[in-house]
Amino acid sequence: METKINDNVTKENKEVIQENLPDASVAKNDDLYNDEKTFALIKRAKEGDEEAKTALVNQNSPLIKSVIRYYRNKGVEYDDLFQLGCMGFIKAIKNFSFEFGVRFSTYAVPMIAGEVKRFLRDDGFIKVSRSTKTLSIKINAYIEECKKKSENAPSLEEIAQHFGVTSYDIIFAMDAAKTPLSLYDKTGDDEGALSLIDKIAAKCSTEEDIDKIVLKDLIKKLNDREKLIIKLRYFKDKTQSDIAKVLKVSQVQVSRLETKIINKIKAGFEGN
Q: Which parts of 140-207 are beta strand (E)?
């Protein structure tokens, strides 16, 4: 039984388990990692003792939080993720057996992660029928199989013919599997990265058209290096780190250069 449990622990879960292992020097004195106390609480919880169940959840909240952090920015509020993690943890209490021969935390991690994954798969913002999800999975598997055989992805028509459905059904199934983006998602990892909503074009007024003309003239007055930074940063959506690699300088230097350029452009606008 121990082998079966360990096989179900993914690389991601193993990292979580490793992070939550106690230091050897304090393990004996730390009640949180005292197997005998934990097992006693589990036994009481399995017998219906709600106080024991609550105590286990409270004691292991750091473990639950360390698991759910891998699923942040997936369109689910952090508090909801924590509740899902607690549900998975309680299932782990219910299904755990002392005969497994492993620490309870080792068994609990895959259960916590599984509960969150199940919710993300079945209860996302966009409700999709199970048949559509199944078709999407089969399509992806078929595409990967074709790539392995011929190194080329099959065409839309070939996929539709293979599954005996229309091209529209294939497009719908593949789009349904995509995770929706938030307008407030950042477009880069830099501290000053813009949100998607900041990049949505708006209807321009006459005044804005004039500003564009002034901006174009101001950019023309920049030197070649400054023009390149503006082009990559604001027209090619490159991060400061990406630009740093192109210019062979540090990201900090790019940040300073960008600030200097923006201030120069602002001064140009004020002068007009």
A: none
**Assigned fold of 196-271:** Arc Repressor Mutant, subunit A (1.10.10)
Rounded Cα distance between 85 and 69, Å, is: 10
Q: Does the structural domain 130-176 have CATH classification 1.10.1040.10?
A: no
pTM of the model: 0.40
Domain boundaries, the chain: 2-122, 130-176, 196-271
Q: Which residue has the tokens 């789009």?
A: 175
One digit per residue, pLDDT tens: the chain, 272 residues?
333 444 444 555 555 545 544 443 334 444 444 567 888 888 888 888 889 889 999 989 999 999 988 888 776 778 888 999 999 999 998 888 878 777 888 888 999 998 888 887 766 556 667 788 788 888 888 888 888 888 788 888 989 999 999 988 888 888 876 766 666 666 666 666 677 667 666 565 566 677 778 888 888 888 999 999 988 988 888 898 889 998 889 999 999 999 999 998 888 877 76
Half-sphere exposure of 55 (CA within 13 A, CB side): 17
